[in-house]
Amino acid sequence: MEHQVTVVTREGCSACVKAEQDVERICGEMGVEWSTLDVDSDPEWRAEYGDRVPVILVNGEEHGYWAVEEDRLRAALRPWRVSNS
């Protein structure tokens, strides 16, 4: 399964810019696709995430908010390994 990371952002949010930079670097190093979503472009997103941006979603599930926890994000993005033992 390939991972997908989404950064839920808001225009004029300096923490969002920092989160995007962190996600861009981490995902780039790990070969994972990522995108942004403007929280203010949809009333449902604004209701769900508006007071916590930036929010990091991994495979559509909330992973964290306000800042990127690099070690935790890297762990979530590691490929699944199947043991043959």
Automatic annotation (TrEMBL):
InterPro entries, per database record: Glutaredoxin-like, Thioredoxin-like_sf
SUPFAM superfamilies cross-referenced by the UniProt entry: Thioredoxin-like (SSF52833)
Annotated protein name in UniProt: Glutaredoxin family protein
Pfam families: Glrx-like (PF05768)
Tree of life domain: Bacteria
Gene3D superfamilies per UniProt: Glutaredoxin
